[in-house]
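Batch job 17 of 40 flagged for manual review because the log was empty.
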Amino acid sequence: MKHQPKKQHRRSTPARSAMKLLCFVLAVVLATMVAATVYFQDTLELLPGFSREFSPLTELSRLFSGLSTSPGTDTIGGSGSPVVNILLIGRDAREGDAVSRSDSMILFSFNKKTRKAVMTSFLRDLYVRIPGHGSNRLNAAYAYGGRELLDQTLEENFGLHVHGNIEVDFENFAGIIDVLGGVELELRQDEADFINQETGSSLTAGTQTLMGEQALMYARIRKLDADGDFSRTNRQRKMLSALMYSFRDTNVTGMVRLIGELLPLIDTDMSSIQLVRYAAACLPVLASSDPVSQSIPSAGTYQDKTVDGMAVLVADEAEVRAQLRSSLLE
């Protein structure tokens, strides 16, 4: 009777054991994330336009693969860049207006590598090249072609890729502030006087909680300071920083509910899921530090000129690009 050969058992090497352990840990982490995302669907259903076709695995792959990119590798926010750029556009549209210009343009940038957030105001009188329309003030780009052309103009002139836009007009701006419960700001007496005159309020100098119409008037103050639009945009960034500070401890579920309330008051080219994803990425950073604040152009990088009868700000493009790369990438 022939003896059957004994089966040879592979020895488990340290490397093989480590690989098995790594695969097991990754499987557990992935399963936990998928389960958490499925559970999170109940909260996401609060958002308008949410569908049960939402796939946890698809969303997870998007989170791991990064954000949408532009072709240019040298563009801030483009291919391979760690920066996410969201443009906040305040429109001066009023009832009956067929065309409106962008009265306020603030770029909120978040660097995934350095974990730094930056708010950059682009002054509306900045003289720039507008693709297909020659040169004009920056706010004319929106009037010519909406947010798409405004995004293209920022990319051509300053090397910025915008991932998404959030637009709001003056009427809805006041409603947004009311939904958020007001904004707490430090007022000068002349600022309080201006707001009182426009709204019939009785504010005084010092820390005040401004509601919708009051906050709108504060954001539009322009003639109290010699530098005009520079101080106006600084007030707008100051207000955004105050709002971010007041909601810095909000958890993701609370943020989803808040986004659901605000969506009817804004116009955006981003999906509700994208808004939640960006908010969730930024919350931990905002909880630990305030955003850096700056304006384009900044002191020393531009000249006041009159071009074709328009009073404009002609910036040194090379210096502006250098400022943006330094503030957003370093």
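Reviewer: the log was empty due to a logging misconfiguration, but the result itself is present. The two ends are 78 Å apart (CA to CA). Unflagging and moving on to job 18.
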